[in-house]
Amino acid sequence: MNGPVRLLIVDDHPVVRDGLRGMFTGDPGFEVLGEAADGAEALVLAASLRPDVVLMDLRMPGMDGVTAIGRLAASGSPVKVLVQTHLLHVYAKLGVNDRAAAVAAAYDRGLLTPGGR
């Protein structure tokens, strides 16, 4: 990839968005293209801004991250999604939550990247 990684930050908490933006601002390897407060806004911005990576929270009011990830996958978007949530391990351990199944399906389709890899 040439140039910086182009990011879209999606979280319903402004302080989290501010913190994530602050982590990447000033690093020449990244460019924050925009921010969204829910999945619906993320879909609109992803279509118009065409980021390389979406940093996506799962639990948000309105359209949640799982639904947004599914719609990104259905649209054929090449964007990669990095899920940011402290609850993902809980969903996976329970094995009965539809969120875990949705995230696993998105991962299998190559839309999610494992943290730290």
Question: Layout of SSEs?
Answer:
Layout: E1 5-10, H1 14-24, E2 30-36, H2 39-49, E3 53-57, H3 65-75, E4 80-84, H4 88-94, H5 98-108
Parallel strand pairs: 1-2, 1-3, 3-4
Helix pairs in contact: 2-3, 3-5
Can you put this structure into words, describing what you see?
- Keywords: DNA-binding, Phosphoprotein, Transcription, Transcription regulation.
- One of its GO terms (biological process) is phosphorelay signal transduction system.
- It comes from Micromonospora craniellae.
- The modification 4-aspartylphosphate is found at residue 57.
- Helices cover 44% and strands 20% of the residues.
- The protein is built from five helices and four strands.
- It has helices at residues 14-24, 39-49, 65-75, 88-94, 98-108, and strands at residues 5-10, 30-36, 53-57, 80-84.
- A four-stranded parallel sheet has the order 2-1-3-4, with helices on both faces.
- Helix 2 packs parallel to helix 3 and helix 3 (65-75) runs parallel beside helix 5.
- The mean pLDDT is 82.
Summary keywords:
117 residues, alpha/beta, Rossmann fold, four-stranded parallel sheet, 5 helices, globular, NreC/VraR/RcsB-like_REC, DNA-binding, transcription regulation
